[in-house]
Specification:
eight-stranded antiparallel sheet; globular; 7% helix
């Protein structure tokens, strides 16, 4: 996936989840990581970790969930035609049930789209109210912080870029030999099977079922208010120092290239 298509995938996922997609889920990021976003691709570039670098006396604690029900999201340009599952449950993430499951997506409206599946992810998160205790820490000026991660043993990601309807069928099954191939099979017995689609598709299953992928995370940035004489910022809220990081690029065309006459939300004064 080149930088333009990476940015398109990140952009699609952000606008349906408010979270950032990891271009390479094998590249592990952790709660407390801080750094910058690479504008050309939407890739997070780590510079350190809040908990390991001793930047703050008494950093906010974070929680770690039990495995959630499988997580499924597709962009608003994709219509989920059919989802059948073996079982259902409840969780903080949208559920499609326990594996094995089947999903069929139709990327329509001549716009393509994106889809992301994660099997039983574990959510680690710093509560938003607790992030605020970081305040205006100088070391984090102009940095973003990862405040949530979704860690999973199996993921599927797809970006469709063709200007015509495309069907993608995805199935996660149990059983199979002790190998890991392009089908996304591991010795844990889980196996991805996918047919159809056009553009970019990537999937993975860890060899022994361990939690080794981070396909999705949340980024927050320090909020900057615009104070002008006799005209206080109407959005000013006391003690709210950190907010969700919006995408830094302008609206993208079908090739992931920015429109020059559209201002991104991150270019506006906060």
């Amino acid at each position: 996936m080149d930088d333009h298509h990476s940015r398109m995938y990140v952009d699609n996922v952000f606008h349906i989840t408010g979270r950032w997609a990891n271009r390479d889920p094998t590249r592990i990021v952790e709660v407390g990581d801080y750094g910058v976003i690479e504008h050309s691709s939407g890739t997070f570039q780590k510079e350190g970790n809040l908990y390991k670098d001793n930047l703050f006396d008494g950093p906010p604690e974070y929680t770690r969930s039990d495995p959630l029900d499988s997580y499924h999201r597709c962009s608003d340009t994709a219509l989920v035609r059919e989802v059948s599952v073996a079982g259902k449950g409840s969780s903080d993430a949208p559920a499609v049930g326990d594996a094995p499951f089947n999903a069929e997506f139709q990327f329509s409206d001549n716009k393509g789209g994106s889809a992301l599946l994660m099997y039983k992810p574990i959510l680690s998160a710093i509560p938003v109210k607790d992030v605020q205790i970081l305040g205006t820490l100088p070391a984090l000026k102009d940095k973003v912080i990862i405040t949530e991660t979704y860690l999973t043993p199996a993921y599927f990601m797809s970006l469709s870029t063709v200007a015509s309807p495309v069907n993608v069928k995805v199935r996660l099954t149990e059983g199979g030999p002790n190998t890991e191939e392009t089908t996304g099979r591991g010795s844990s017995g889980l196996k991805w099977e996918a047919t159809g689609g056009s553009g970019f598709t990537q999937m993975g299953v860890t060899p022994n079922g361990e939690y080794g992928y981070v396909p999705l995370f949340r980024l927050m940035k320090r909020r900057v208010w615009s104070f002008k004489r006799d005209s206080p910022d109407p959005d000013y809220v006391k003690d709210i120092y950190w907010v969700d990081k919006p995408v830094p690029w302008r609206a993208l065309d079908d090739d992931g290239i920015e429109f020059v006459d559209v201002v991104s939300s991150d270019e506006e004064d906060w």
